[in-house]
Amino acid sequence: MIKKPNYVLVVDINKKPLTPCKPSVAKKLLKTEKAAVIRRFPFKIILKKKCVPNGQKLELKIAPGSVTTGLSLVLNDALIWCGELNHRGSLIKKKLESRRQSRSLRRSKLRYRKPRFLNRQRHQGWLPPSLMHRVLTTMTWVKRLIKFASISSITVELVRFDLQKLENPEISGVEYQQGELLGYEIREYLLEKWGRKCTYCLSENVPLQVEHIVPKALKGSNRLSNLCLACQKCNQRKGIKPIEQFLAKKPSLLKAILAQSKKPLRDAQAVNATRWKLFNSLKETGLPVLTGTGGQTKFNRCRFGLEKTHFYDSACTGIVDKLTILANQPLIITCKGHGGRQKAALNKYGYPIRYNPLKPIKGWQSGDLAIDEQGNLGRVNPRSKSNSFNFTIFGQKAKSIHVNKLRRVHQKDGYTYTK
């Protein structure tokens, strides 16, 4: 498929959001000096005059994920802007565990300290920092896009998998059980749980069929814990044999399959744990918020013949009659944070060994993007005891350049960007 860049976000001289324009139109505006670049990521220009909005409204669509969240802007059933937001929940958990171990080791040596584990109470609706981070970073980009574009409504994939309905389809009546979306819900869940490969021979990129671990002929149920995926060859070979007999010569694989069948889907649980928090946060924006399910998203994506990507998933969220692809080159946004607030680096025993310099350094921070005198774009790493900073051009080694020869074009905001 031909790569199509995102439309350019536009605001007028009063910074009121307008309808995004094509890259070719933005290039002409910049060349004739009727507009100027106000932000690099996402790319946004500001017109040098006041404009009246044309009334066209955008729809912001979100497909939340445990690791990556898809974002897209849809105008009149056409995808014009897309992005993928990579979270850092696992890194936050790792750093909190490291901090807890250091503090625990220090406090264990202070016998006069009273225990504090009974003095702390969590407020209602509390989420672990690694999960709350997904909500906060998603809301950060929702607010940015609302500020940069004239968005009229938001559609979010409220549940990746409707686990309650999958376990008991009769909960909403026979219509849901016999509907075409039920098969997409179950199949998508099994693809995520079993790694999109055959359970028995571990083959990938082959047609997969839904397989009963305990055959129905041996009174096996249709519950999710008894379902897996298998290629046609393995499915026919197994037939109605018990899995213990079919895998008698592969005891390690048998043990792994039985353990995986009872194991919950971790990513789905993470998304389901944050769904209502994200939904209520989106409602606070004051815009209408519509919802959809993961099975509905896959149904739409397969109907339009689109590949499995996070930004396509977001564009197919909710009720979609038709979809025209005008942009398919997403902005990859990776959460990096603003750095630690530790005033000192610690040794393995949890005691300080050196003190970190205060930020910012001479008005710069590590991660700022700048242009040198030759017009090369690179990343800056300032030094506290020198006026020469490390300047790294993408794909090259870092070099030392005086601060007066650098012009900042994008201030560090806690994210890195690629296309």
Structural summary, described in words:
This protein has 419 residues and is an alpha/beta fold. It folds into three domains: 9-89 and 127-163 and 267-335, ATPase, nucleotide binding domain (Nucleotidyltransferase, domain 5, 2-Layer Sandwich), CATH 3.30.420; 164-266, DNA Binding (I), subunit A (Orthogonal Bundle); 337-419, SH3 type barrels. It has helices at residues 23-31, 89-107, 129-148, 163-167, 174-178, 180-193, 232-238, 243-246, 251-262, 266-283, 294-304, 310-315, and strands at residues 9-11, 35-39, 44-47, 58-63, 68-75, 78-86, 151-159, 208-212, 227-231, 289-293, 324-325, 331-335, 344-346, 352-355, 369-371, 377-381, 388-393, 399-402, 407-410, 415-418. The strands form five sheets. Strands 4, 5, 6, 7, 10, 11, 12 and 20 form an eight-stranded mixed beta sheet that branches. A five-stranded antiparallel beta sheet has the order 18-17-16-15-19, with no helix packed on it. A hairpin with a 4-residue loop joins β4 and β5 (68-75). α6 packs across α11. Mean pLDDT is 85; it is low at 169-180.
